[in-house]
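Reopening this one. Same input as before:
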Amino acid sequence: MARECELSGIKPIVGHKVSHSNVKTKRRFLPNLVNVTLRSEALGQAYSMRIAAKTLRTVDKHGGLDGYLAKAKDEQLSPKALKIKRDIAKQAEEAAA
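Same output, byte for byte:
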């Protein structure tokens, strides 16, 4: 399982651990990934995802999964999230017609 957020695309980054004597050693900063179940109001369905805790706060800020996906860029979404975004758009299109 990849250490990548399914919604925001956050991945591990590389930096240095710096000792008291200022010796730099390579290290990895891993994202704080949590398993959550998010509900889509438009589709009336729940989806299980592995997302960063930081992203979960942003999802709450945008009013749920539907609001977050509406503003998210397609490049940063996983294939699963991209399919959900397309399904929501299709549902909204059918409701408008």
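So the earlier flakiness isn't reproducible anymore. For the record, The CA atoms of residues 69 and 93 lie 15 Å apart.
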